[in-house]
Amino acid sequence: DKGNHRHFMQKEIYEQPVVVAQTLRSYLRPLEEQVALPDMEFDLAGVERVAIVACGTAYYVGMIGKYWIEQLARVPVEIDFASEFRYRDPVFTPSMLGLVISQSGETADTLAALRHMKESGLTTGGIINVPTSSMAREVDLLLPTHAGPEIGVASTKAFTCQLAVMAALAVNLARAKGRLSREDERDIVRHLREVPEAMSKALGHDAEIEAIAPKIAVARDVLYLGRGPEYPMALEGALKLKEISYIHAEGYASGEMKHGPIALIDDSVPLIVIAPSGPLFDKTVSNMQEAQARGAQVVLISDAEGIAQAGENTIATIEMPKVHPLIAPLVYAVPVQLLAYHVAVFKGTDVDQPRNLAKSVTVE
Ligand code: M6R
Fold it and tell me: What does the record give as the active site (predicted)?
């Protein structure tokens, strides 16, 4: 049931503050201000490496997870597309945790990768939305997302709930490895608890985003830029746009622009810049300005501080609340999803059932 929404995708975008809060509730102990995972039969302190495997949007959660786990727990993380993983003959070490991420828990490539990890003797974990799925049954440690059924082919609420669980895992690993003070953990828990409200504020910009959509809908190519954890967000933005609006889009790490893609820039190319203010902001802005000097039509997604500093000469700015860098990907997901949604609606495509795509890809 779509309720009073026009599409399942729109409904699922709007559900995010509630389902992310629901997911976080099962991983946070508010009184102790601690993060907690379900009981497990192995000791996280023994994990020396993490190998993440996923497809599509779930893969981008893995990329963001690599930033978080390495930064907080100082445990090296490698990440592969599930379809590539087995064929590169990866090196397994005994203290490696194999982690799959999947909404459906049935994606054929991810399931095959999981089985390969198990056969190779790895302990496995899974961030999975469908609790009765094959992957949920086969992993050693199930880390459920509580997004509820996701109907729209374009993944939205599953993505942000996966991020919430990934953050909880990174914090637990950091604590197990003795890398996190009690005070730092409290701090992180407070920031995570701010996510649902920050997401609601982001949703409050829906009408402005809808107003930008016609300008993007006429483009042949759209580029998304981000740096650090916002780089995978740029990839996610581009994937979302291509799958439902059929406009060619690419995500780039901001610093990579001048190594090739800047050749594409002229005044017909919208550039969506995902850049919360903070330590990485100035560098991203200088990459953005290089593109602006060549005519790029910039949409800047930032907070008030970032927009005050760099919002000039853009075709639009979308103001997000000021948030801690750790939770920024969860909040910035909202405008990225809404932009793809409104462009697709403006173009009149089948938003919930885009051509050539299935909700769950059960062939390798
Ligand atoms: O069910 P899964 O999370 O394993 O699915 C993985 C991808 O097929 C999925 O995220 C796909 O990329 C979405 N259509 C993206 O919106």
Answer: 359 (for fru-6p isomerization activity)
Using H for helix, E for strand and C for coil, what is the string for 209-234? HHHHHHHHHCCCEEEEEECCCHHHHH
Report pLDDT for 27.
97
Average pLDDT, rounded, for the chain: 96
* Residues above pLDDT 90, as percent of the chain: 93
Position 302 scores a pLDDT of 98
Respond yes or no: is residue 11 known to be catalytic: no
Angle subtended at Cα 359 by Cα 353 and Cα 364, rounded to the nearest 5 degrees: 130
Q: For residues 154 and 159, what is the distance between their CA atoms, to the nearest angstrom?
A: 10
CA distance 329 to 248: 23
Torsion sign, CA atoms 297, 203, 233, 309: positive
Ligand 1 atom closest to Cα of 57? 10
Query: From atom 14 of ligand 1, which residue's Cα is the shortest distance away?
Result: 154
Question: 50 CA distance to ligand 1 centroid (A)?
Answer: 21
Cα separation, 289 vs 287, in Å, equals 5
Report the half-sphere exposure of 113 (CA within 13 A, side-chain side).
32
DSSP for 104-124, written as a single string? SS--HHHHHHHHHHHHTT-EE
Nearest by Cα to 104 from 87, 86, 76, 82 = 82
Does 227 have pLDDT greater than 90? yes
pLDDT digits (tens, 9 = 90+) for 107-142: 999 999 999 999 999 999 999 999 999 999 999 999
